[in-house]
Amino acid sequence: AKSAGGNRFEVADAEADARAITRHGLTTALPTALERGEFFIEYQPLVHLGDGSVRGAEALVRWLHPQHGVLGPDRFIPLAEHTGLIVPLGRWVLEQSVRQARDWRERYAGTPSAPLRINVNLSPCQLTHPGLVQDTVEILQAEGVAPDALCLEVTESALIGADDDLLKPLRRLAEMGVDIALDDFGTGYSNLANLRRLPVSILKLDRSFTQSMQQFPADPVDLKIVEGIVSLAHSLDLAVTVEGVETGAQAEQLRILGCDTAQGWYYARPGPPERLHELALADATP
Ligand code: C2E
Ligand code: CA
Ligand code: CA
Ligand code: CA
């Protein structure tokens, strides 16, 4: 029994070592990755549930690592937050995304997708960084993009118990016309009463709600919960976006429940900007 236990420990140790080495390796490679141009952005369309038109896209960062290939954000965003690289990386993502939005807006002039908006994720570290407002203003001005073309996504957990100092930069951005979305809504300890205090204009319902709409008809209790959130959101003048829509049945139920915008594999996986051109132009042609 002892040797078996020993073996188990050896295996566990080997796995822990491998994880530590990878983590260590990634952490070491991270600071230069930005200089070396190893990050790239994929865009996932945001679709209006009422008419199916593409209204915007969420920017999702990836790392093309020279040895490990393409790494998703879950692999390196926590490391970037830990090492502080998230601030310059986040600024880079914002700059690229705003530039992309300008390009799309020019391209789609005169089509239903012309007012296309770009959603960019903000990490909690960026929220507390003093340069956030100024950087954002400078990037929008440099690209000649109106603030209302930009939506910054902040997770609900980042704002739990947020004091006024933390909310101040978000409030300033919101006053300028930048939309603030509450990301992953419903996953944390949701304080619905708290919503009124936050400068948010969009709720992004977490994928777990969408998953519960997989069967048709969905569980009546889940339907009631989503219905309740949507009606509360609308009564507070918040738009509702749902993420993780994978089937037409989900899209239809969420549309009936009054959700405004949807995002998910049913419409498109995250992809290069050209992919959005195809989707947006496809729905612009009668
Ligand atoms: P998120 O903001 O909740 O982004 C949505 C995630 O769901 C993305 O994962 C997307 O690829 C995935 N997804 C989209 N549609 C579907 C679907 O229909 N089904 C399923 N199963 N998944 C779907 P991704 O790209 O791996 O990003 C993970 C997280 O990394 C994001 O979660 C976001 O929190 C973070 N992230 C991504 N880019 C950035 C960034 O530039 N800055 C910061 N701070 N965080 C980022
Ligand atoms: Ca997001
Ligand atoms: Ca989300
Ligand atoms: Ca999520």
TrEMBL record:
GO BP terms in the entry: regulation of DNA-templated transcription
Domain EAL: 23-284
Protein's recorded name: GGDEF domain-containing protein
UniProt signal peptide: none
Source organism of the structure: Streptomyces spinoverrucosus
